[in-house]
Design brief:
With about 350 residues, the chain is mainly beta. It has one domain: Glycosyl hydrolase domain, family 43 (Tachylectin-2, Chain A, 5 Propeller), CATH 2.115.10. Helix content is about 10%, strand content about 45%. Belongs to the glycosyl hydrolase 130 family. One of its GO terms (molecular function) is glycosyltransferase activity. Keywords: Glycosyltransferase, Hydrolase, Transferase. InterPro entries: Glyco_hydro_beta-prop_sf, Mannoside_phosphorylase.
Length: about 350
C-alpha cells in the first residue's frame, strides 16, 4: 500500500457572494516558482465561476483574489463554469472546464499566454443530441447499452431546448505526443481519449466518425470494487519514466450513496491510448470529517497536482465544499503500480 498523508484543508468558502456556498475541484499549475490555483467557486443557487489564489509553496496561500477571474459569459455556460483543469503546452496554457447551461454539461476550453487574460474557445467535446446517441447505443456494435442506462437522466427534462449527451472531465495531456494534442473526456461510465493535430480539427465530422468507432476510444472502464459504478478523469496526466501517471476518480455505490475516491493508473508514453496498469485499491478515499460531510458527502475528487522532488501533492475537492491536499512519494507510487506489470 502507498502511504498517503492527508495534509488537510487549504481553501474554504468565504462570505464573498461568488464563493459563499463552496470552493472545490481546483486546476493547479506550477509556473516560475509559484503555484497557481484556479478553483470552482459556488454562489447561491449553484451558480459557479472560477476563483484564483497563489501559493508560495504547495501548502501555503500567498494571496487570494476577492473576485472571480473567469465568469459565465455565454449561453452554454449561463448556469456555471465548473471543475477546471489546466496544463501548459508549448507556450500556451489550456484551461478546461465544464460549462453548464442548466440542462447540458459539456467540456469547454479557454487559453492564455500569461494566466491572466483568457480567450474562450468554447465547447470542444461533441454536442450530440441525446436522442441521436440513444439510437447509436441501441446498436451494440457501435455503443454498449450501458451508456444509455448511465445517461438516460437527460430524458427527465421537460423543455423545447436542445438536450445533449453530458461530456465532462475534459483534460489535456501537458505536451504533444507524436505531434498531436491528446485529451481525456468522460461520457459516463467510462473515460474516453481523443487526439487531433489542432483544436480546429474538432469538427462535427470528426465527432461523427468518433462515435462510429466509439469502442476504440474507450481508455478506462470500471474494473475494481472501489470504482465499479463509474469513473472519470481527475488530474492532468504526469509524465514519468514508466509512463503517464493518471490520477482519476472512481465511484462506487453504498447504502449511504455514492463514494468518490482517488485512483491511479499508468498509460504508455508514446501511445497513451494503452493502459499499462492501475492500482487495485483506491489511492485514497473519504475518511476525514472534511471529506465525509459537506455539500455532497463522501467525496474526494482529485483535479490538480504539483510535484516537488519526490513528493506528489494532490489537490482535491472534499465533500464538494472545500479544497484539501494529500501527499505521497511518487517513486513509491510508481513502484507499486509497476509491481504487477509482467
Amino acid at each position: 500500500m502507498v502511504l498517503i498523508k492527508k495534509e488537510g484543508i487549504i481553501l474554504k468558502k468565504t462570505e464573498l457572494s461568488f464563493e459563499c456556498e463552496g470552493v472545490l475541484n481546483p486546476a493547479v499549475i506550477s509556473e516560475n516558482g509559484k503555484i497557481h490555483i484556479f478553483y470552482r467557486a459556488v454562489a447561491k443557487g449553484n451558480f459557479s465561476s472560477v476563483g484564483y489564489c497563489l501559493l508560495s509553496d504547495p501548502l501555503t496561500v500567498e494571496k487570494r483574489s476577492d473576485i472571480p477571474i473567469i465568469i459565465p459569459e455565454f449561453e452554454h455556460e449561463k448556469h456555471g463554469i465548473e471543475d477546471p483543469r489546466i496544463v501548459k503546452i508549448d507556450d500556451t496554457f489550456y484551461l478546461t472546464y465544464t460549462s453548464y447551461d442548466g440542462i447540458n454539461a459539456l467540456g469547454t476550453l479557454a487559453t492564455s499566454q500569461d494566466l491572466k487574460s483568457w480567450k474562450k474557445t468554447g465547447i470542444v467535446v461533441p454536442k450530440i443530441p441525446y436522442d441521436e446517441f440513444k439510437l447509436l447505443s441501441e446498436s451494440e456494435s457501435l455503443i454498449p447499452e450501458k451508456y444509455q442506462r448511465y445517461n438516460q437522466f437527460q430524458l427527465n427534462h421537460n423543455t423545447d431546448e436542445d438536450i445533449f449527451l453530458w461530456d465532462k472531465n475534459l483534460i489535456f495531456f501537458p505536451r504533444r505526443i507524436n505531434g498531436k494534442l491528446y485529451f481525456l473526456h468522460r461520457i459516463r461510465p467510462d473515460i474516453q481519449i481523443a487526439s487531433v493535430e489542432n483544436i480546429e480539427d474538432l469538427t462535427p465530422d470528426f465527432w461523427k466518425d468518433y462515435f462510429l468507432h466509439f469502442k476504440d476510444h474507450v481508455l478506462l472502464s470500471p474494473k475494481h470494487d472501489h470504482e465499479i459504478s463509474y469513473i472519470g478523469g481527475g488530474c492532468p496526466p504526469i509524465e514519468t519514466e514508466y509512463g503517464w501517471l493518471m490520477i482519476y476518480h472512481g465511484v462506487h455505490d453504498t447504502i449511504d450513496g455514492y463514494v468518490y475516491g482517488a485512483c491511479a493508473a499508468l498509460l504508455e508514453l508514446n501511445n497513451p491510448e494503452k493502459e499499462i496498469t492501475r492500482l487495485s485499491y483506491p489511492l485514497f478515499k473519504p475518511e476525514e470529517k472534511w471529506e465525509l460531510k459537506g455539500e455532497v458527502n463522501n467525496v474526494c475528487f482529485p483535479t490538480g497536482t504539483v510535484v516537488k522532488n519526490d513528493t506528489l501533492y494532490i489537490y482535491y475537492g472534499a465533500a464538494d465544499e472545500r479544497i484539501a491536499v494529500a501527499s505521497l512519494s511518487i517513486s513509491k507510487l510508481l513502484k507499486e503500480l509497476m509491481r504487477d506489470v509482467v
